Amino acid sequence: MSDITNAYNNSSRPLKHHEELYLPPHLRELKTARNRSKKVWQIFRDPTSKNLFNRAQARFRNAMSEFNQSMYISQNEQLNIYDGTLWRRNKRLQSKRSKIPQLKNPSTNLPPSHTDLEKVEIIADHLESQFTPNDFGDRNTERTVEKSIREFKNEIRTSKFKKVRPSDIICFMKHIKINKVPGIDSITIIASENYPKTD
Question: Which domain of life is it from (predicted)?
């Protein structure tokens, strides 16, 4: 079967830049396994299925990075000076990818800036004006805020709640619905029913 697949892959036309990237069969299998484990985790929300999904995701990510690295190395090995591929790659690496468009400073009426230094100055002025500390203007406001923070830190809030007895917890556990979704601690109702119950 692999000979047929290899012959088909070798005889097919190469993909163009705008088309989807070709994934070899072993990467497609890893991607399918990753998607299946993700679907299982989204249905059940079980820690075990989440663990399996994380492992499948890590396997797929590592395999993809190895594949991309090997493709990059093979493309670099095929460069030569006779068909111009080496010079095209060199030109692409040396050219600027994205240029910042001209910027206009809203605080001044100067013409728009074109050089990198002027653009940096405008961006720095903008960030400096955004991240200045708030000016309260009134010293009493600052004192009020400091006092409320100090009182909040010193206040003991545990006295407002009544103490809970073990019998209250057992009574509460008896009335929980059997199909309730586990909370943030991932403890299911079936697991909580197996706790030792002593009055």
Answer: Eukaryota
